[in-house]
Design a protein that fits this description.
The chain is of the alpha/beta class. Helix content is 35%, strand content 20%. It is built from 10 helices and 16 strands. The strands form 4 sheets. Strands 4, 5, 6, 9, 10, 11, 12, 15 and 16 form a 9-stranded mixed β-sheet that branches. Strands 1-7-8 form a 3-stranded mixed β-sheet. It has a two-stranded antiparallel ribbon with strand order 2-3. Strand 2 and strand 3 form a beta hairpin. The longest helix is centred in the last third of the chain and has 17 residues. 46% of the residues are buried.
Length: 326
């Protein structure tokens, strides 16, 4: 049995099971309903976008996505995250049979993983590449927690299909979306998409700014280190506008519109590729009339930033949580 170690436990989040469990319970308990949505979870919400930073930052906003999930029919959980360390032009699958968390192990769906690998379109991750990547691991405790409240025992947990998504272009995202669409159509499949939003600051080589006079997302410019702090609007307000533009593009349901928004602003959405793959899969189902009218698009229910930037020397990372009903 090849087991992936919880390599970021003790640094990015607590490695003490009872402490971690209490933290997750606390964040989830603070979420009851979302403006414009109503009570959570939402019936049929089988797809979510949630952040993957250290839990001091991503724990509270991620709770909004996980509280939205409808697990009533769940038999398997797909987890898609961006590759930060392992270069990929496509997607890769885990070779492990279990993923460890401080709350207990999560089993992997080795038969579905083998089925995907048999398409010839997926690479295999080495265990070291698997354990280096945090975009998948940061979701494991949340997945374990919400499954533990929905299933009688860990033996009954739906197994996991982790997919590491590389620097895919639009065509590859459509190709992978087409492969995953039948699984997404299946009412017993859950899809978790791992992504942070804007990484703003000189240390991220991204200082795009939208002045108050800008009427389009493309009307901004890059701030320089010597520039005085702008106030119309403040930098953090500009970041919020840039992120809102990306989130609205994701909510439009158009894969092309999402990619075009990112092209215009350069927004450093690290999970742009897994989001793109799932948006492409949703579009495939819509074109095949396999999604009911009014369903199959994302709805963002939470937006936060690690800090509010005022000076060009400041930096922040943004976090957005969303769900889609199928």
């Amino acid at each position: 049995m090849a087991k992936r170690d919880a390599s970021h436990a003790g640094s990015w989040y607590s490695d003490h099971g009872p402490t971690l469990s209490r933290q997750l319970d606390g964040w989830l308990s603070q979420v009851n309903h979302a403006d414009g949505v109503g009570a959570l979870p939402q019936p049929g919400a089988r797809v979510i976008i949630a952040p993957h930073a250290g839990y001091a930052y991503s724990g509270p906003p991620a709770a909004w996505a996980y509280k939205s999930l409808d697990l009533s029919k769940a038999k398997r959980v797909f987890l898609l995250g961006p590759s930060h360390h392992f270069y990929l032009s496509g997607c890769a699958l885990s070779q492990c049979t279990h993923y460890s968390t401080p709350l207990g192990d999560l089993p992997l769906d080795t038969s579905t993983i083998a089925e995907l690998h048999s398409t010839g379109k997926f690479e295999r991750m080495s265990q070291s590449a698997d354990e280096d990547e945090h975009s998948l691991e940061m979701h494991l405790p949340y997945i374990h927690k919400v499954l533990s409240t929905s299933f009688p025992s860990s033996a009954a947990f739906p197994p996991l299909i982790p997919i590491l998504v590389g620097s895919t272009n639009a065509a590859r995202e459509v190709a992978y979306g087409t492969i995953l669409a039948p699984y997404l159509q299946d009412s017993t499949s859950i899809f978790v998409v791992s992504s942070d939003f804007c990484h703003w600051g000189l240390r991220f080589n991204y200082t795009y700014y939208l002045p108050a006079s800008a009427t389009k997302a493309a009307d901004g410019y890059n701030l320089r280190s010597k520039d005085k702090p702008p106030t119309s609007p403040h930098i953090h307000e500009s970041i919020a506008r840039i992120d809102k533009s990306a989130m609205e593009a994701a909510e439009s349901g158009s894969h092309d519109a999402f990619l075009e928004d990112l092209r215009q602003t350069g927004n450093t959405v690290c999970g742009r590729h897994p989001i793109g793959v799932v948006m492409a899969a949703l579009e495939v189902l819509k074109k095949e009339n396999k999604v009911e009218e009014g369903k199959g698009t994302f709805k963002f229910v939470r937006y936060e930033r690690s800090s509010d930037c005022v000076k060009v020397a400041d930096s922040s990372v943004s976090y957005g949580s969303a769900f889609a009903v199928l």
